[in-house]
Amino acid sequence: MFFLIFAVWLILNGKVTVEICLFGVGISAALIFFMCRFMGYSLQKELLLFRVSPLLIRYLWVLIKEIVKANVSVMKIILSPELQPEPALVFFDTELRTGMAKMMLANSITLTPGTITVSVEGRRFCVHCLDRELAEGMEESVFVELLEEMENFCLSGICRQ
After folding, report:
1. Distance between CA 31 and CA 3 in Å, rounded?
2. pTM exceeds 0.85
3. What would the mean pLDDT of 96-118 be, rounded to a whole number?
4. What domains are there in the chain, each with its CATH number?
């Protein structure tokens, strides 16, 4: 992070001189100190993010695929007059432990067309679905599996902060 801040400093200055470099080192060190002291930044958190990034990329890929599939399902419901949607409120429990994983699951459900996360209380989710078919298998969805995998990875001894 120090080198990234220093590189931005050099780019914004437009030229490289001894004075600019020395002042940039001082400014970068002060920013890193401030981030560690007051914003909870640490090298361990940065390494954790680096280690989890392949799982996050896989999660984003799955999210994009599910959004496309849900778009097709919603288009079929909208464009075919013989299909009558059956809206439903679905309640399900999840084994996710961290608030971050629950937030990611709730946002992923809401981002997927035809579903909206209404509430999350503890481990219980309430989701409104445009059609009952969109609600099938929500508690065992790909999102839940990947988030559990990320949680297990981060809560194991490998990534302990």
Report:
1. 12
2. no
3. 90
4. 2-38 (no CATH), 43-155 (3.30.70)
Q: What's phi and psi for 119, nearest 5 deg?
A: -155, 155
The whole-angstrom separation of Cα 113 and Cα 138 is 14
Tens digit of each residue's pLDDT (9 = 90 or more) over 1-41: 788 889 999 999 988 899 999 999 999 999 988 988 888 77
Q: Please name the amino acid found at residue 141.
A: S
User: What's the pLDDT at 105?
Assistant: 92
Q: Label residues 57-91 b or e (16+ Cβ within 10 Å = b).
A: eebeebbeebeeebeebbeebeeeeeeeeeeeebe
Q: Which of 139, 73, 87 is nearest to 109 (CA)?
A: 139
